[in-house]
Each structure stands twice: as structure tokens, then as C-alpha cells.
Amino acid sequence: MRELLFPYCSRCVGHVRIWETGSMASSVIMLTGISGGIVIALSQTALGGLLVFGAALVAAVIVTSIMQSRARSHCLPSCASGAKAVVFYGWSGSTNTFAFESAAYTARFAEQNATKLASVDPGLRHLLEAHKVARLQVPTPASATRTVPPPRDLKQWLAHLDHQPTRVSRRIAFGRALDVVSDPDERATLVHVVCSAELAPIFARIDGVASSTRRRELQRALSDVRADNIPEELREAELVDLDRRIRSTLPPM
Fold first, then answer.
1. What angle do CA 216, 226, 121 make, to 5 degrees?
2. Do 23 and 31 meet the contact criterion of CB atoms below 8 Å apart?
3. Whether the Cβ atoms of residue 99 and residue 79 lie closer than 8 Å to each other
4. Calpha distance 163→7 (Å, rounded)
5. Rounded distance, CA 132 to CA 124, Å?
6. pLDDT tens sequence across 116-146
7. Which H or E run includes 55?
8. Would you call 51 exposed, middle or buried from its count of C-beta atoms within 10 A (0-12, 13-18, 19+)?
């Protein structure tokens, strides 16, 4: 996985370490209590083992509470959480999934990694815009005030899409374009350009192969597009193009 930027300050690193130290200490206490309880239950009485386990549970809860309170005492009002502000849930293919503790931290994280975002939903896009507006209205020493540029016209959007190095970055740019372009003809042009760019690698790969193989690959691509998380306008355009290509591979009736 490529490196992602987590905007932690030194204070946040400190209270997160305190929080995690409490969690680790609690785990050690519980593991010791479980092991000791099993040994005592087997060698002496079940009640003795249960008492040892109960004592370990109480001690673990107390230690966790103390360490978490200590971590929170190191937090500022701007801190997202005493614990980690972001949790990594896993990955699927080239896409990684995270969960965040606060809307402000979500916006900061997404802004720092804008080029790596995939399938940005309207909620996150709205959050990013609101965060940018708030930052411009109330500048902080950590973030200099910037002038919001005027919106791009169609020609500028097409040039911007053409310069995207990856499919993910192109989809992100396309989603942003759809948010601001309202003219039906201009939207249709954007959809056509992105549709052609998305399907071009598939068509190049199957060029010159047997009709049966070409049809099978096109049907697989059709299924992938139906399941993909892309704007409905783009999905419809890609499905129409793929269906037309599939029909061209069928033998004449």
C-alpha cells in the first residue's frame, strides 16, 4: 500500500500513546487473570479460579479508565479523540477503508490525501467543501488563507481530466466536474470523454482476438460496470457502449 499522510500533531501522538498503553496494560492483566484463573481452577477450586478472573477483570477496567482519563486530559478542544482518530479496516484490491472519529478530522485527512481518494460520495464532498470554506473564513497558523479560484469551464475540465494519471484520479475529477457543471450538453460531453477513457483499455486488450473471446471479455466488463460504484450517467453510457460491442460479436441471424 502506498503511504498515506495522517495529520497528527505531537500532542495527539502523546495522548494516543497513553491511551494505547492503557489498552495494552488491560490486555496483559486480563490474559494473566485468565491464565491464573484456569490454573487455580484446575489445581484447587473452581471458585478460586473465578475469583482470580473477577479480580483481574476489575483491575483491567480500573487501569483502562485511569489511562483513558489521563489521555483525555492531554487533549485540546481541537483534538478528535483521546484514542486514534482514524482506524484502518482493511483493503479490497487497491482500495483501503478507514473510519474516523470526527468530521473535522475526516475533512483534514481527505484533504491531505485528495489524490488518493476513491469513489468519493456526496457526503464527503460536501464535508470537504464546508471545511475549505470554514478554513478560509477562520484562518489558522497551521493553514494559510488561500483564494478560491473561479470554477473551471468545460474546456478546462476536459484538459484537467486528460491530465489525470490514473483511473481513480480521473473518476475523482469527473465527480467534481459533475458537481459544478449543470448544462446538459456539457455534462454529456464529460460523460462521453470519461466513458471512452474507461473503456479504451478493454477494447485495446480484446482487439484482434476471436469473437467468442471478445464477447466473453465484454460480458465480464459489463458485469463489472453494473457492480461498480460510479455516477449513474457514466454507468449508463458504459453499459450502452459495451452492449453495442457485444451485439457486434454475435453471428448474423
1. 145
2. no
3. no
4. 28
5. 12
6. 777 777 777 777 777 666 665 555 544 444 4
7. helix 46-73
8. middle
